[in-house]
Amino acid sequence: MASLKIAFIVRFPNVLRASFTNTHLAYEAHQRGHHVYFMSFRHFTQYQQGTLVGRLKAPFQAAVPPASRDELISALWNRECPEITLDLSELDTVFLRNNPAFTENKVEEKLGNPALYFCRQIKDRVLVINDPDGLFQAESKLFLLRIPEAARPRTLVTRDEDEVRKFLADLKGPAILKPLKGFG
Questions:
Q1: What is the per-residue pLDDT across 126-183, written as a single tens digit (0 to 9) for each?
Q2: What number of other Cβ atoms are within 10 A of residue 30's Cβ?
Q3: To which H or E segment does residue 161 belong?
Q4: List of residues 6+ apart from 131 with CB closer than 8 A
Q5: Which of 56, 67, 172, 173 has the maximal Cβ count within 10 Å?
Q6: Which of 117, 92, 106, 101 has the alpha carbon at shortest distance from 41?
Q7: Alpha helices, H only, 90-131
Q8: pLDDT digits (tens, 9 = 90+) for 21-51
Q9: Which is nearest to 130 in space by CA: 7, 16, 34?
Q10: More confident: 101 or 167
Q11: Are the CB atoms for 137 and 145 separated by under 8 Å?
């Protein structure tokens, strides 16, 4: 089997942990002979002619490549981690692995997650795992209301405190309160 070029797009590579799914997927892909890269959503560049380029961390291209998941994390946290710049259409697979609802600033709150927009542009040439169109649809928890009522817990969406109190009283049990966007 030919080796693949695989990129993991995460919010910040330097906050990954050895126990995270991204780390396991990347390390196992490398163990199977694939070229593995990490990229922050901040390191996309799109040129006028449409070329989409990324600055990718390439920890397995270090003089001494990581020999464990813990060493992979150390390499990603290290400022000396090798980097490459690559036309993203040269990749075989992109794992879009950051929370689409997480926003860092007011611009993102209005425009949405930039990684989703960029991955939309390459998905006709590159296999994008976690399709950006699906993530756009799931950007708020209102998406969960599409799940049939029989398969989801009782749900209320409101900003009205009186409605929340009434709903909680009717439940007669524990409840989870979540914001529409983001997490917590």
A1: 999 988 877 777 767 777 788 888 898 888 888 899 999 999 999 888 888 887 766 6
A2: 18
A3: helix 161-171
A4: 96, 123
A5: 56
A6: 117
A7: 106-111, 114-122
A8: 999 999 999 999 999 999 987 888 888 787 8
A9: 7
A10: 167
A11: no
48: Cα within 13 Å, side-chain hemisphere: 0
Apex 56 CA angle, 84 and 137, nearest 5: 150
Q: Tokens standing for 80?
A: 């000396």
Position of tokens 């697979």? Answer: 93
Q: Supply φ then ψ for residue 19, to 5 degrees.
A: -85, -10
Tokens at 62, concatenated:
């270090």
Residue that has been written with the tokens 């330097």 in this structure: 14
**Global pTM?**
0.74
Amino acid at 138: A
Smallest CA-to-CA distance from 125 within 101, 148, 93 is with 93
Crossing angle for the helix pair 69-77 and 21-31, to the nearest 10 degrees: 110
Token digits of residue 76: 């990603």
Neighbours of 109 (CB within 10 A): 11
